Amino acid sequence: MSFEYIKNKFPTDDGFCMPAEFSKHSATVMIWPERPGSWCYKAKFAEKVFAEIIGKIAEFEKVFVLASDKKFAHAKACLEGVKNAEVLNINSDDAWARDTAPTFVVNNNGEIRAIDWQFNAWGGEYDGLYANWENDDKIPYELCKTLGVPLYDAHPFVLEGGSIHTDGEGTLITTEECLLSKGRNPKLTKAEIEEKLNKYLGINKTIWLPKGIYNDETNGHIDNICAFVAPAEVVLAWCDDENDPQYAISKACLDILENSTDNKGRKIKVHKLPVPKIPVTVTENDIKGYIFEDGEDTREVGERLAASYVNFYFCNGAVILPQFGGENAESDRVAAEILERVCKDRKIIPIYARDIIVGGGNIHCITQQIPFTDKGGEKLRYRRFR
């Protein structure tokens, strides 16, 4: 396996498709936090929780951690005791690996390749969250060149990994709020977008939910509201309070899911996963810690953050689950209990993640899986540390 930048061709032309996140991995990709407009107090607290998550995932699979020129030595020092983590010197504009790292695809011959979507900071000039994202858009190329993984050029099609979930059997869920946003691919119709998903990922059935979590600044990424936990089985962020704006959103999603079938014609089983009972909001102390640059989306005291337990991450044998603590301690407990029932064969690992949600996302948003394959995946898994 060696690096090649493949233009004017689709992965499905070569027999590649996207597997489910809950399938076996060879590794996880993460990015060391740095951006002061995302991570309060120069990422002091974010670094601690990132390191904790890297350490937990590394107990189950390899972790590649991308760090900038400025933070490379620091990240290596912070992760020195984590035996299964490798720090790579690759620059970025922020730490959302789900959206800026490549999407990996596999074939029936045990080979792995990746897709280089166009990234435009969740909306580009229309409603993007920061003005300069050149380093982010280069991450797939730089990472795949380093790892020796062939990469398909999907530009100018804009897509973030957090906007899609697949069952690995030809079914994908997404939201209209995001994929039909004017800041993504405004010249494409819904049918044309579905055709792109088919050609790049091997998707034959797309289930469109109307919206994501209330006040999600990514234009409603699917990974915050609904996720596959098995073929024909999902968890859905739920709210029982009819006065909460999340109630109507979740109810509309439930109605669609319960009246949908997957690519194989199966009815979809829905597990309700309640959102934190007390909304998680930006505090005055948080605001004091941000340093925003020109053209960057800012925050306000009292702003509701898109906190959701659906933003967990599957790794081999475990679920890394965000927790919010304090007055949401009971909500935390209930979420862990539900996922223990739903994911019986995995260890549930709760992580206090408020220091991630203040950046605008959560655990799923900062991780990207590299699926296991007999050839490429094995090579990556046992890649020698640098």
Quaternary structure: single chain
Radius of gyration: 19 Å
Low-confidence stretches: none
Task: Tell me the β content.
Answer: 15-25%
Description of the structure:
- The protein has 386 residues and is α/β, with parallel strands linked by helices.
- The protein has one domain (14-381): 5-stranded Propeller (L-arginine/glycine Amidinotransferase, Chain A).
- It is 28% helix and 23% strand.
- A hairpin with a 5-residue loop joins strand 5 (103-106) and strand 6.
- It is globular.
Keywords:
alpha/beta; L-arginine/glycine Amidinotransferase, Chain A; 12 helices; 386 residues
Question: What layout of secondary structure does this protein have?
Answer:
Blueprint: E1 5-6, E2 25-31, H1 40-58, E3 62-67, H2 72-78, E4 85-89, H3 97-100, E5 103-106, E6 112-118, H4 124-127, H5 134-147, E7 151-158, E8 165-166, E9 171-175, H6 176-179, H7 190-201, E10 205-209, E11 226-230, E12 233-238, H8 245-258, E13 269-274, H9 284-289, E14 313-315, E15 318-323, H10 329-342, E16 347-352, H11 354-357, E17 368-371, H12 376-381
Parallel strand pairs: 1-7, 2-3, 3-4, 6-7, 9-10, 12-13, 15-16
Antiparallel strand pairs: 2-17, 5-6, 8-9, 11-12, 14-15
Give a concise summary.
With 386 residues, this protein is α/β, with parallel strands linked by helices. The chain has twelve helices and 17 strands.
